[in-house]
Amino acid sequence: MRLADAGIVSRLFAAAPRLVALLVFIAGAVLLFSGAVPAASGRLDALHRVLALPFIEASHFLASLAGGTLLLLAHALRRRLDAGWQLALALLAMGALLSLLKGKDYEEATLLGLACLALLPLRGQFYRRSSLLSEPFTRGWTAAILTVLLASYLLLFLTHEQTPINQMAWWDFALHAEAPRSQRATVGATALIAIFALYRLLRPVRPPLEFPDAAALARALPIVEKSRATNANLALRGDKALLFSASGDAFLMYGRRGRSWIALGEPIGPEQSARELVWQFHALSDSFDGWCVLFEVGEKWRSQCAELGLTLTPLGEEARVPLAEFTLDQPGRKKLREARSRLTRRGYRFRILCREEVPAALPALKVVSDAWLAAKNVTEKGFSNASFDGHYLSQFPVAVIEVDDGIVAFANLWPGAGKEELSIDLMRHLPTAANGTMDLLFCELMLWGRREGYQWFNLGMAPLSNLGAGSQRDLWSHIGTFVYQHGEHFYNFEGLRRYKQKFDPVWRPLYLASPGGLALPAILVDITALMAGSLSGIVSRRGAASDRKGPFPASSARK
Question: Are strands 456-463 and 421-429 parallel, antiparallel or unpaired?
Answer without folding.
Answer: parallel
